[in-house]
Write the structure tokens for this entry.
Amino acid sequence: MKIYVVSGLGADFKVLERLQFPKEHEVVFIDWLIPENDESFSSYVTRMAEKIDDSESFYLLGYSFGGIMVQEINMLKPAEKVVILGSIKSDKEKSRLIKMGEITKIPKYIPVNFFNLKTLETYSVFRKFFDPKNPKVNQYFRVTDPYYLKWSIQRISEWKFEQKNNIIQIMGDRDIVFPLKNSKPDYIIKGGTHLFPATKHKEVSLLLNKIFV
């Protein structure tokens, strides 16, 4: 079977590259698309889902914003199993900061040029929020299209979703992007920050090989 994988906001697959998947399955990484102007989230999800061949059974795995994405894709093309890493199963699990963005609608009014190359130095400081002690944190976030970043942050703040029973959630106990206290995950990675798929890859790989059987 194929395991379709979507990484996190602004991240390529470097953050997931050390994960070991079951050898009997084929891993297919789905790259983020650049949103069209004023594209709705549902339209974007549909375009992302086009990359999945649902003529045969498959699995889905998503990290961070990718976890939100694979749950939406699962509504269009149901998977045998859906695993989310460092992500949330419903809008009720949002952090206080993300909820504030939803209420105030601040992400909607952040100018696109806030995310341009001239401000990436500031943005790199913001990225350290994911794991302030990790010297490699900036290496994991390489998708820097300004409109994509603004659009994604706005969609996360606005996201509404009812929890589904077939979602397998793995979280780190030191994640400050999606705090553990807001969720009841199936598995907890001890000492795991938001970057736990990279920093705790051995523990995560053991779980994935147990889940994807």
